[in-house]
Amino acid sequence: MAYQKILVAIDDSEISDNVIQQAAQLAKALNSEITLVQVMTLDPYLADAYLRMGQSNELIERVRSYVQENLSKAEKKFEALGLTVATQVLEGFSVNGEIISAAQNLGVDLIIMGSHGRTGFKKFILGSVAQKVLGESHIPVLVVR
């Protein structure tokens, strides 16, 4: 299968640099188009008015600004590797759910994302977004460490 449309999900970790490198290498080899995303996780209590009435608050705007800045830095890294990418800030309560929804809505052929490699108690407490995406997505997923 040729992966013509790739969704690349990042966060603000060091692993995202590896994700960018691998995604750029694959996209160049396959002449693929990339959409770069990061999820802004919403707290149900802090985001109540925002979700119901569209009323933002200072905290939400600061987080959105931080996420957008992180995406801009990643976009520049792709440009330095010779690729132009589209970017998108995703908002929601579930990181894995937002990634899967975006992948479906964009009609991508592949999701590329990182894994922090947590095991044991840390994995139990913190969860594994990559594992959840792997388990729930009908779209192929490439996990980078």
Would you summarize the structure shown here?
With 145 residues, the chain is of the alpha/beta class. 50% of the residues lie in helices and 21% in strands. The chain is globular.
Description:
There is one protein chain. The chain is of the alpha/beta class and 145 residues long. The protein has a single domain (5-144), classed as HUPs (Rossmann fold, 3-Layer(aba) Sandwich), CATH 3.40.50. The protein is 50% helix and 21% strand. Strands 3-2-1-4-5 form a five-stranded parallel sheet, with helices on both faces. The protein is globular, with a radius of gyration of 15 Å. It starts with a strand and ends with a strand. 26% of the residues are buried. The model has no long low-confidence stretch (mean pLDDT 89).
